[in-house]
Amino acid sequence: MADKKTRTALVTGASAGIGAAFARVFAQNGFNLVLSARRLTQLEMLALELETAYGVKTHIIVADLADPNAPQRIFDDLEEEGIAIDALVNNAGYGVPGLYRQVKWETHRDFIQVMITSPAHLAHLFEPGMVERGYGRILNVASLAGIIPPSAGHTQYGAAKAFMIRFSQAHALEHKETGVHITALCPGFTYSEFHDVSGARKIVSKLPKLMWMEADEVAQQGFEAVMRGDPVCINGRVNRFIALLAKYLPDWLTTRIVRSQSSKFRVTDVK
Ligand SMILES: NC(=O)c1ccc[n+]([C@@H]2O[C@H](COP(=O)([O-])OP(=O)(O)OC[C@H]3O[C@@H](n4cnc5c(N)ncnc54)[C@H](OP(=O)(O)O)[C@@H]3O)[C@@H](O)[C@H]2O)c1
To answer: Ligand 1 centre from 197 Cα, in Å?
Structure first.
């Protein structure tokens, strides 16, 4: 349960996958929910489900985080509604298939906005209120891709997730005594709409089942990690083992392994 009073969590990318799972976990633990994404219908369905199943209050904000004004608009909307945010889940995200030069600049620019600038901006907007109230939880959904060496295609993805991990670690160090916990969550392959959106469903469906986790499990582990105050949480034993290999094997070897396997999960040919 959310301690003392009823708290409120804002989840970005709540219309599907890991974000919707996070909304359910926070609701199960007594948090009211602010649900944000671009698709209103999915958010409305989730809001109804959470209100019915857990008796929590919900508020929907339709926003495209590729718009640089979106974080401020979300913040202003909540100020106007008098809703204080106790937990922020920076979850919205996607992958861009193809080689860097095959993808138009506007797509790369929007990707940086959604994956790096908007979550950093949202954290900056909501952090002061959390510090003032002596309680805050910021969960940045990164990825195992931010830990393992890069490969061709989806060129900015690993870099964006590495940013989220390092950013969370540094940010957490600024909150030793404020009551604010900051966690980077690093899932590996997770069942969601992610690989349908990136067009990789056909190739990733050939990966062994043991590589995959359910979104609910990923979100539950993320919730527990941010409540404990772990700066980084890698989901599942298989992903933790891969992260260990990436840490202790020499770079040349891990890079070679990832490159030899990357055609099983990266779409490079978008022509
Ligand atoms: N699935 C995996 O294997 C995996 C592994 C590691 C990390 N992750 C990370 O987990 C997070 C959640 O992904 P998922 O797997 O749950 O994928 P998903 O099922 O495709 O959900 C992605 C969510 O992000 C939202 N979103 C995408 N672009 C947006 C934009 N421009 N503005 C606002 N919202 C946007 C989508 O909502 P709308 O379309 O309604 O806007 C959707 O709710 C991402 O950060 C992803 O990088 C996923």
So the answer is: 9
User: What is the pLDDT confidence band of residue 133, given thresholds at 50, 70 and 90?
Assistant: very high
200-215 per-position pLDDT tens digit: 888 888 888 899 999 9
Rounded to whole angstroms, how far apart are CA atoms 83 and 32?
Answer: 10
154: left (phi over 0), alpha (psi -120 to 50) or beta: left
Rounded CA-CA distance 81/226 in Å is 26
223-243 tens-digit pLDDT:
999 999 999 999 999 999 999
- Name the average pLDDT for the chain: 94
- Write the class of the CATH domain 8-264: alpha beta
Q: Which secondary-structure segment (H or E) carries 153?
A: none
Q: Give 21 Cα–ligand 1 centroid separation in angstroms.
A: 12
**Dihedral-angle region of residue 131 (phi above 0 means left; psi in -120 to 50 means alpha; beta otherwise):** alpha
- Each domain of the chain, given as residue ranges in start order, spans 8-264
d(CA 145, CA 124): 25
pLDDT digits (tens, 9 = 90+) for 144-153: 999 999 888 9
Q: Show the tokens assigned to 198.
A: 């990136």
CB of 7 within 8 A of CB of 83? no
- In the predicted model, is pLDDT for residue 143 greater than 50? yes
What residues does ligand 1 touch, defined as CB less than 6 Å away?
Answer: 12-19, 37-39, 42, 64-66, 91-94, 114, 141, 143, 187, 189-190, 192-194, 197
